[in-house]
Amino acid sequence: MNWKQLLSAKRWGYEARVPNDQFDARSEFQRDYDRLIFSSPFRRLQNKTQVFPLPGAVFVHNRLTHSLEVASVGRSLGRLFYNLMKKQNPNLDAEYPFLQEVGNIVSAACLSHDLGNPAFGHSGEAAISSFFTEGRGREYEKEMTAEEWADLSHFEGNANALRILTHPFNGKDDKGFALTYATLASIVKYPCAAIDGHVKGSHHRKKYGYFAPEKKAFEKIVQELGLERDPTNSQGYLRHPLVYLVEAADDICYNIIDLEDAHHLKILSYDEVENLLLPLCGGEDLRNRLNGLADSGSRVELLRAKAINTLIHGCAEVFAQNQDKLLSGTFETPLVDALDERIVLQMKEIERISVMRIYNAPTVVQIEIAGFKVMNALLEEFIPAYLKKDKGHFDKKMVAMIPQQFHTHKEDTYSKIRAVLDYVSGMTDIYAIDLYRKIKGISIPSL
User: Fold this and answer.
1) Are the C-beta atoms of 102 and 128 separated by less than 8 Å?
2) Cα–Cα dist 301/239, whole Å
3) What sign results for the dihedral spanned by CA atoms 368, 210, 96, 12?
4) What is the pTM of this model?
5) Residue 357: which of 267, 254, 271, 256 has the closest Cα?
6) For residues 351 and 60, what is the distance between their CA atoms, to the nearest angstrom?
7) Is 396 domain-assigned?
8) Contact criterion met (CB below 8 Å) for 168 and 176
9) Nearest to 215, CA basis, from 234, 238, 191
10) Residue 379 falls within a domain, yes or no?
11) Angstrom distance (rounded) from CA 96 to CA 85
């Protein structure tokens, strides 16, 4: 793989158009960022759970604030990488004109990395999958191919993001979001189909990156950017190198910022957060500055900022130093795991504490359980109704609730189920709960 081809500004659906930024205020990749910021799927992230239940009196991060912060970190990672490469090669811009745009590409990809995640965080993904593996949805397996069943039995938010960005939904632009090929490839962390994913020990096949209907779309991206075949999977591909920067930005943010939210919610004390973050602050003596701050919240903010700065610089350096491996597809670890051993060990300790104290906190577990029940119940109502050929009165009313943009003219079982999943997976937490209450008769709509 090579940077000249990997950084294509060709736009999805407008392949014949020649990009021309000569007289424009924004590059093609900056346009990607702006399109995402103003999009409905991105705005809906405001009411989707990140980790903690959506806030009452105390602010905690939701999917939207998380995505904005990941995009900010991603831009810094890309810019630092470019600066490091520029120091090594003063003629870099002439050889690779779009390399200076890496920060913008990564930032746009970071904005969209969670677009496909359903309501209630990972519990929503698990609820969708379990409907088909343990619930009423098991009966549909015999009506579809193994590839299609793998999509449903292991629902994946990463694959759903690519679908949202490229699929021609009814009444919407048939070119999807029309993002650049480079941005689209940078969100696909696991460039394989569901049936080829979930391989232990393989970093780029840990999950999967596209549903069966988007296979041809991803192969178009592969051909344009010159992504290489995966030597361990004849049907899959190697990652676009910028995926590693998107992944690192996400890893940095959720590991560090979940601690900040836990402190706000009094799940972790200030001393506990300080002990976890201070070793990541680059060896700088912060004691006087910390003691000079009036409240523990401000001290946590300082520690968070310094820790993120250390991780950004470290990951950018690892990325720059391993260009040969990244471009040949032989770099098989997250950038965060390739940092100095002391930092890696401290990040593992943060992960251990987060699992034990944060992700299993009562409020987190409660929202996961509630979300699991809500998502499962919605699928139990919508999927059978949409699949029935001879629909009764109730079935017709249920189908009428699905917006036209999600309906399909295809008659096969998989396509119809996929239409329902497009609708349900796009719901916010608040909308899903409200709809659940209404269709169960728990609450009645007001006029």
Assistant:
1) no
2) 34
3) negative
4) 0.92
5) 267
6) 19
7) yes
8) yes
9) 191
10) yes
11) 11
How far apart are alpha carbons 447 and 434 in whole angstroms? 15
Tell me which H or E stretch contains 237.
strand 233-237
Half-sphere exposure for 103 (CA within 13 Å, toward CB)? 14
Give the CA angle between residues 398, 401, 404 to the nearest 5°: 125
Task: Look at the chain and report how many structural domains it folds into.
Answer: 1
Contact between residue 39 and residue 176 where contact means Cβ atoms under 8 Å apart: no
Phi/psi at 236 (nearest 5 deg)?
-115, -175
In sequence order, what are the beta bridge partners of 49?
A: 62
Indicate the angle between helix axes 146-153 and 413-425, nearest 10 degrees. Answer: 20
pLDDT tens by residue, 277-335: 999 987 667 888 888 888 888 999 999 999 999 999 999 999 999 999 999 988 989 99
Spatial separation of the C-alpha atoms in residues 193 and 2, rounded to whole Å: 24
Beta partners for residue 230, in sequence order: 233
Residue-range definition of the domain harbouring residue 426: 362-439
Q: Is 80 exceeded by the pLDDT of residue 254?
A: yes
Q: Which residues pair with 180 in a beta bridge?
A: 11
Q: Compute the residue count for the chain.
A: 447
Residues contacting 119, CB < 8 A, separation 6+: 48, 49, 371, 374, 375, 427, 428, 429, 431, 432
Residues 323 and 336: beta-carbon distance below 8 Å: no
Cβ-based burial of 20 (10 A; exposed 0-12, middle 13-18, buried ≥19): exposed
Residue 425 lies in a domain: yes
373 within a domain of the structure (yes/no) = yes
> How far lies 67's CA from each of 242, 422, 424, in Å?
17, 21, 21
Instruction: List the Cα angle 208/30/82 in 5-degree steps.
Output: 80
Residue 442 tokens read as: 């728990």
Contact between 135 and 141 (Cβ < 8 Å): no
d(CA 427, CA 3): 37
What pLDDT sits at residue 58? 52
DSSP string, 307-365: HHHHHHHHHHHHHHHTHHHHHHT---S-GGGGS-HHHHHHHHHHHHHIIIIITTSHHHH
Residues whose CB is less than 8 angstroms from the CB of residue 295 and which lie 6 or more positions away in sequence, other chains included = none
How far is 260 from 305, CA to CA, in rounded Å? 11
Mean pLDDT for 406-412 is 92
Q: What single-letter amino acid sits at 161?
A: A
- Please count the other Cβ atoms lying within 10 Å of the Cβ belonging to residue 85: 18
